[in-house]
Amino acid sequence: MTKEQLIALGLSEEQATKIIEGFGTMIPKSRFDEVNDSKKQLEKAVAERDGQLEELKKSASANDDLKAEIEKLQGENTTAKEQHEAEMKQLKITGAVERALSGAKAKNIKAVKALLDLENAELEGEDVKGLTDQIKALQEGKDSKFLFESNTNNKQQQYRGFKPSEKSERGGQETAPTTLTDAVQSHFSQNQ
Fold first, then answer.
1. Cα–Cα distance for residue pair 5/28, rounded to 1 Å
2. How far, in Å, CA of 155 to CA of 112, rounded?
3. Per-residue H/E/C for 125-176
4. What pLDDT score was predicted for residue 37?
5. pLDDT value of residue 132
6. Rounded to an integer, what distance in angstroms lies between the CA atom of residue 105 and that of residue 111?
7. For residue 122, what are the β-bridge partners?
8. Which residues are registered as beta bridge partners of 148?
9. The pLDDT value given to residue 83
10. What angle do CA 181, 186, 192 make, to 5 degrees?
11. N or C, which terminus of the chain has less Cβ within 10 Å?
12. How far lies 186's CA from each of 163, 164, 167, 182, in Å?
């Protein structure tokens, strides 16, 4: 309001001047509405930004959770792969050892295998590094050579002592002597 409007309302000039001086210049309603609308729009924009920040925090934490889960699964996959490779290596070593022991004619593969030092065994192609030397030492060792078949055991076993008579030694007889007397007579009759 202006000073003239206050005087028109019935106030004295002094009163109108004091009111104008006390309140300063009045802001027109249109300007007030404009500033008020701007404030409301800014508050609404801040509220929207706060909502977006909360959503980003949630998605970021979800992303962090997903990233952590992915890293955990990758770690588990790496561990599983390493275990699988170690198991495959051990299976290959076991197979190579058993083939070598079979080739060396071990009587009991499990027993001979227990005597081998396979703790740091490494594959060299399809054979285990240093295995042939260990097997050879066991084959030649006095306390372990019995675990392997020897080459002399492969020959036909020869008997000493009494040799059963064969048909040609009986002098053409079809039947064997049944008594000791018949056997002695048969023997002396063949040697004459």
1. 14
2. 24
3. CCEECCHHHHHHHHHHCCCCHHHECCHHHHCCCCCCCCCCCCHHHHCCCCCC
4. 85
5. 86
6. 13
7. none
8. 106
9. 92
10. 130
11. C
12. 16, 15, 13, 6
User: Which residue's entry shows tokens 């409007």?
Assistant: 5
Helix, coil or strand: residue 7: helix
CB 121 within 8 A of CB 93: yes
- Over the chain (192 residues), the average pLDDT of each successive run of 10 is 81 83 67 81 88 82 81 88 89 86 86 84 81 86 83 58 58 70 86 69
Nearest to 139, CA basis, from 88, 111, 89, 105? 105
Q: Tell me how far apart the alpha carbons of residues 37 and 99 are, in angstroms, rounded to a whole number.
A: 91
Rg of the chain over all Cα atoms, to the nearest angstrom: 56
* Predicted local distance difference test score (pLDDT) of residue 174: 57
